[in-house]
Each structure stands twice: as structure tokens, then as C-alpha cells.
Amino acid sequence: MSDAPSVPVRTTAGTAATAEAGGRRAPRRTPGIWRASVARSSVELKGFFRNKQSLIFTLMFPVLMLLVFGSIFSGKVAGTDTDLKQVFMAGIIASGVMSTAFSGLAINIAIERDTGTVRRLAMTPMPKSAYFIGKLVRVVVTTVLETALLMAIAVTAFGLPLPSTVQRWTTLGWDLALGTVACALLAVAYSAIIPNSRSAAAIVTPVFMVTQFISGVFFPFNQLPSWMQTLASFFPLKWIAQGFRSVFLPDSFTVVEPAGSWELGRIALVLALWSLGGLVLTAMSFRWRGPRVN
User: What whole-number distance in Å separates Cα of residue 15 and Cα of residue 244?
Assistant: First the structure.
């Protein structure tokens, strides 16, 4: 057996070879996209659930908000027979989607870029798309878990009714899916403006908090100033929350909705456009190196 050092040599796309002294080359294929995505997704999920800070800040924060504000709010929404508590709970479930898909992911990518993890992954044979698929799988799993947890608490502790028809369960599914994808892609794009891991929470959290207040999470949307309603309509959280109101609240509540209806078609269209816009922004802004990691 030869003791000569092996030298990796790039040959064709997706294939690498090892050149050994004597001219022998042993072809070595790069991992396939499916295998690499599964492996990367497993790493992402294990990393998330083993990180206590991620669990508390991302997953448990909406739960704490639900328990605290759900115990405070009482009474009916003016002009309706709907409990204010039900409106808030539909909103906080939408907020949970943004917490896991936007805030948690943007901060996570900023930390990985600052520590050089993103750069090191880019230098491996792993297909780069596997990195994003792994992030998306992590976000989808944690968002579904977050939504199920919030719904369970809202139903058992505060009497929130579950969706009563197949159509409402279907609306819950596509609203959750589109909202998660839109927020996740925007998080990847937004991470590009975070200079380092120490400032990540300070740059992400204000956006998360402000959009909650203007999107009708804490207050009935119709009671917000008209300029605030107009501003909120430019962001996905307003539409995600409106979709969840259509799932959990009676149709009679549409009397206080700005359009007088749930606008399900418009919700789907807006969230789809935000997903497309997030994809474009991600392609334009994502960098595999951070300002401190060249």
C-alpha cells in the first residue's frame, strides 16, 4: 500500500476523485441532494431541541404570552358576541408561526454565519440547497409543534373551540403552510442585515414585536387606527392572523373585519406573493460568509 498523500481533485459537476501517487484515481461521489437534506435536517432538529435557549426563546415565548394575556383579557369584542379572549388566541397562534419561522431562524442563521459554521458548510461537498432544506424542515416541524401546543393550551385552559368543519381544518393547513414558508424565506433574507450574533436578537425582536401590535394579535384589528391597519396589510402576519380568525371564530365576526369577510382568496395570494418575494430576496442577499468570517 502506498504511503503517498491523497489529494482531492474536482473532476465533473457533483463528482470528486482522489488522485494517488501512481496515477490511480478512485471516484468519490458527492452526497446526493436527498441524502444530504435528510442528514442536514436531522442535525438541525437535534441542534434545536438540545439548545435550551432556542426552546425557551422561540418555542415557549408564545406559550407564556398565551398564558399571561389569556388570563387577563375578558369580555366581548364590541359589536359581536365573540369573546375577546378567542380573538387574542387566534392572533397568538399566528404570532407563534412568526416566532419560530422568522425570529428563531433569522437569529440562528446570524449566529451560524458569525461563528463560521455557514462558511464551513459551504466548503464541504454537501449540496448548498441541503442547507436551506434542513432549515425549512426544522422550521416546519417546530412551527407545527408550536401551533399544536398553543391550540392544546387554548382549548383546554381557555375554551377555544376547535375548527368545526373540514373546510376550516383545510384553511388552517394552507394558512399555516404558506405563513411558515413566507416567514422562513424572509428570515433567511433578513439575516443578511444582521452584522453579528451579539446584535441578532436586538435587530430581530423589534420587528417581531411591532408587527404583532399592528397586525391585531393583542387587540381586535378593527379597533386599530386606520393608518396602522394599512401599514399592517403590507406584512404577512396580518394575513396569517386573519386566516386563523377565520378558522377559530364564528362567521358572524366578519361584521367587524375591515372587508366584511374573511378574504381567504386574498390571504392565500398575499402569502404566496410574500413567499415568492422572500425567495427572490434570499437569492439576492444570502452570503455564505460573515463580515468577521472571510
Answer: 47
- For residue 173, pLDDT over 90 is answered with yes
Residue with cell 395570494: 269
Q: Which three cell numbers stand for residue 176?
A: 399555516
Nearest residue to 253 via CA among 83, 73, 93: 83
The answer to whether the beta carbons of residues 130 and 37 sit under 8 Å apart is: yes
The residue to which cell 404570552 is assigned: 65
The Cβ of residue 21 has, within 10 Å, a number of other Cβ atoms equal to 11
Strand 7-10 to 15-19 pairing = antiparallel
Grid cell 393583542 in the structure block, residue: 218
Cβ distance 96 to 180 under 8 Å? no
Q: Give the CA angle between residues 148, 153, 155 to the nearest 5°.
A: 90
What's the chain's average pLDDT?
85
Residues 293, 113 contacting (CB under 8 angstroms): yes
pLDDT category at 6 given cuts 50, 70, 90 is very low
Q: Which three cell numbers stand for residue 192?
A: 443578511
17, HSE (Cβ side, Cα atoms, 13 Å): 10
Percent of the chain exceeding pLDDT 70 equals 88
Q: What one-letter code names the amino acid at 263?
A: E
